[in-house]
Amino acid sequence: MLPVERKRTIVQLVTERDGCSVAELAAELEFSKATIRRDLQDLAAEGRIERSHGGAVPADSGRPDRAYDERDVENLDAKQAIAARASEEIQAGQVVCFDSGTTTMEVARAVPDEGFVGVTNMAEIALELATSDVDVKLTGGTMRPRSHALVGPSTEAFLDRTNFDLLFLGIASLDAESGLSTPDEDEAAVKRRMVAAASRVVLVADSSKFGERSFRSVADPDDIDCLVTDEPLPPELAEAFADTAVVVTGQGA
Predict the structure, then answer these.
(1) pTM over 0.85
(2) Which segments of the chain does DSSP mark as H helices, in order?
(3) Residue 96 and residue 32 share a domain
(4) Measured over all CA atoms, what is the biggest interatomic distance in the chain, rounded to whole angstroms?
């Protein structure tokens, strides 16, 4: 395992387990404790983790990386309204990518029954799309237990050789200054590749994301073609998304 891969794995383990000891990391990765300590020092200096007594804990990422099951039922009415409007963007014959997430899951539940190819990095979304007459493709990769997103080199390699007509992008945080961001660096890497591979990007985000920032940047507002949300944007965000088609639906419409 190369040093960059080892450090990436350390960050992933520390994040998923909400902290790891040096001994635990050394045993799992099969490297010496001295090597792990040096890696932790480097990662802490880069802001990717925080050192603790005998190990490391996740970096303070602003908006927390909360588990999928915790987020699934939050703001459900708003997410369903967003999904109903966003699904209208699909045209027959398109290749449509569904990013992982609770709002994109609602989009998958609202899509037409046929007429497009669906691609996703989340098994639950693939299963939902498979209930219709839709050709479904999974990116492959390693599943993050907290978010259920597929991430890692296999996911990234798939996306690097794929093109999409349309992307439904989910996000953890949306801020005028820092743009779109998310707590986990592996998920951020996947989202960036999805955006790069898509001809049209539709961001689906409810108003709870407004004014928040997370650890890793994903995209700038001008990378987005359409934002579907549930409340009017506050002035700073409205200015940042001035060149984007913003659709407000649901109770905030």
Answers:
(1) no
(2) 3-16, 22-29, 33-45, 68-71, 76-86, 102-110, 123-129, 153-160, 185-197, 235-240
(3) no
(4) 57
User: Which pLDDT tens digit goes with each residue over 178-205?
Assistant: 899 998 889 999 999 999 999 999 999 9
Statement to judge: residues 179 and 229 lie in one domain: yes
Strand partners, 210: 174
Q: How many CA atoms lie within 13 A of 204 on its CB side?
A: 31
DSSP character at residue 149: B
Q: Per the domain annotation, does 110 fall within a domain? A: yes
Place of tokens 């349309």: 166
Say if residues 165 and 96 touch (Cβ distance below 8 Å). yes
The H or E element containing residue 58 is strand 55-58
| Contact of 6 with 39, CB cutoff 8 Å | yes
Q: Is the model more confident about 5 or about 53?
A: 5
Contact criterion met (CB below 8 Å) for 218 and 202: no
Other C-beta atoms closer than 10 Å to the C-beta of 234 total: 12
Amino acid letter, 43: L
Q: What dihedral angle (degrees, nearest 10) is formed by the CA atoms of 72, 148, 180, 7?
A: 150
For residues 134 and 196, state if they share a domain: yes
What is the spatial distance between Cα 140 and Cα 151, in angstroms, rounded to a whole number? 8
Give the tokens for residue 44: 């802490």
Q: Measured between alpha carbons, how far is 112 from 103 in angstroms, rounded to an integer?
A: 17
Per-residue pLDDT reduced to its tens digit, 74-107: 568 899 999 999 999 999 999 999 999 999 999 9
Residue 217 CA to its chain's centroid (Å): 11
Q: Residue 20: which of 56, 65, 60, 52 has the closest Cα?
A: 56
